[in-house]
Amino acid sequence: MPNPVVSKASTVWNGDLFTGKGSTSLDSSGAASFDVEWNARAEGSDRTTTPEELLAAAHATCYSMALSNELKKNDTPPTQLNTTAEVTFVAGTGITGIHLTVDAQVEGIDADGFATIAEGAKTGCPVSQALAATEITLTANLA
């Protein structure tokens, strides 16, 4: 049985929700730190990240890995997968949905077979499973 891997991130927050701000860090890898604040989350921002943007990055990555594995098992490994995850947040309600879009270059598979594998990868993706309480939709395009 594989050893569990624990990934760690942390956030330092200063002040109250509406006027405060903070910084979140990817501690396990040390790859980056990101500024966070409520206004970016509630109104959008092109300079400050949000929990939903970080969740979208995790979901796009996990889904790409799951899909590439399922395609390999089908003897049709992908040449390239371009995956986007869009996480919708409504202040006062929370996360209301996630939409995955994948544009895939895969040799030796037809559109129906690809669609079936893409949908199965969405269901099997560990991040999708962790977020199962949220509606997750998928657009899968075979180039």
From TrEMBL:
Q: Which Pfam families does the protein's record reference?
A: OsmC (PF02566)
Q: Which Gene3D superfamilies match?
A: 3.30.300.20
User: Matching InterPro entries, A to Z?
Assistant: KH_dom-like_a/b, OsmC/Ohr_fam, OsmC/Ohrsf, OsmC_Ohr_Peroxiredoxin, Peroxiredoxin_OsmC
An example molecular function term from Gene Ontology annotations: peroxidase activity
Q: Name one GO biological process term.
A: response to oxidative stress
Identify this protein by name: Osmotically inducible protein OsmC
